[in-house]
Request: fold
Amino acid sequence: MRVKFWGVRGSIPTPLRPSEVEGKVIAMAEDVVRAGITDADEVAGYLRRRHSMLQRGTAGGNTTCVSVEWPGSMLIIDAGSGIRVLGEQLMEGPCGRGEGELHIVLSHTHWDHIQGLPFFAPLFQRNTVHIYGCHDNLEQRLRYQQQPDHFPISMDAFLARLEFHRCAPGEPVGLPGGARFIPHRLDHPGDSYGYRVEHDGSSLVFASDSEHKPNDPENHHGIIDFFRDADLVVFDSQYTLEESIIKEDWGHSSAIVGVDLAAHAGVKRLALFHHEPSYPDSFIHNLLMKAQTYRDVNHNGCGLELFVAVEGIDVTL
Reply:
């Protein structure tokens, strides 16, 4: 399976401010000058070797959207603003001819997870789009987002055929190409659901918008079993550990708690995700460094790999 991140921010789209872009450009230019590089062809390679994407680029400003692809099909998880760019890419294939069949599963309907749907280009061709979720009035919720008070066009303007599917926690849902996903109820105001996607022995767990308190039982909400031996867990690490305590019951977690859960569950890779909109890239980078130190001190030898989910990167499982 191939996992790609199209939107990684939480709560609200967060583009870099002009001053932030300028600051990154100046910092990179100063580094190149200090290194004595005068050949333009050497600059890009030097910066990529020396600096992470968070330092020379950005984590990205779009809200939640992740795609999972395997031979024969794809599952799109959440429809935040990141789904717009995914839709543009899909229009280069069968979707651009109105011959596509797509599968979208929604964790919940807070606006940062559905606000990109009206801008998803395949909906404006005669494609078939399956939309899955565990909430009982999913279609009504999406239609509400596009009522005249909130949006200029209704869902009736879509040319695509929409098919809504109600899912139930713990019950597998089959997909084309031999894949399946299993929903799991998470701890978030208004209810949010995670999904374990499995295909040909590989497994991805998407567990954003879920609160796991540091003093919770180790297997709170059965999360250890849900994560068990996953190749990759995409985890809500919006807050620092201290902030997660102050903002109790706001529905988000921290990288530190994510490390504990993943280590106990035997997870191979943990992606820090749903970044706080007020955190600059440098702060997110520091959160990763602290989480890696915590892993090394408290779970030495567990083999857990940590990385920051960055818009545009993909991971093969």
User: Anything to note?
Assistant: Residues 18-35 form the longest helix (18 residues).
